[in-house]
Amino acid sequence: MGYDIHIERREDEPGITLDEWRAAVGSAPGARVITATRVELGHGISQGVGPGDVELYFADDGQWTPVFRTGERDDGSIRIATRATALGQPAVLAFLRHVTSVLDAVVVGDEGEQYDPATGDALERN
To answer: Which residue, of 9, 36, 75, 119, has the greatest Cβ tally within 10 A?
Structure first.
């Protein structure tokens, strides 16, 4: 399994709802919620799509690519994740800057560390 990063609100804030997520994605340039039920990943591999999964437009390739996966949580909020390796991509960083600002959210790794959405760099722990 790979290492993921997540978009979430701080612990003392309510979780992000699917409607909030979809609105934030809809206002982000070069991003859209995937409407298909499955997406092709290449080499004959496909995967199912969650209700808020997102693809981003990569101008260098001229392609829309699935990047963020979503899943429901017990409290009615959603889990939003992508592979940590995506942090180095300009389209991903632009999207993170936008949605974290709109949702008042943070970028967090699997081990709880926070990342700067503008640079993708890990932030110092207090």
So the answer is: 9
**HSE on the CB side for 20, CA within 13 Å?**
19
Q: Rounded to whole angstroms, how far apart are CA atoms 97 and 46?
A: 29
3-class secondary-structure state, position 70 = strand
Q: Please give the model's pTM, rounded to 2 decimal places.
A: 0.87
Query: What count of other Cβ atoms lies within 10 Å of the Cβ of residue 93?
Result: 19
> What secondary structure, in 3-state letters, does 72-87 show?
ECCCCCEEEEEEHHHH
- The DSSP bridge pattern shows strands 45-48 and 31-33 to be unpaired
Span 77-114, pLDDT tens digits: 889 999 888 888 999 999 999 999 999 999 999 998 99
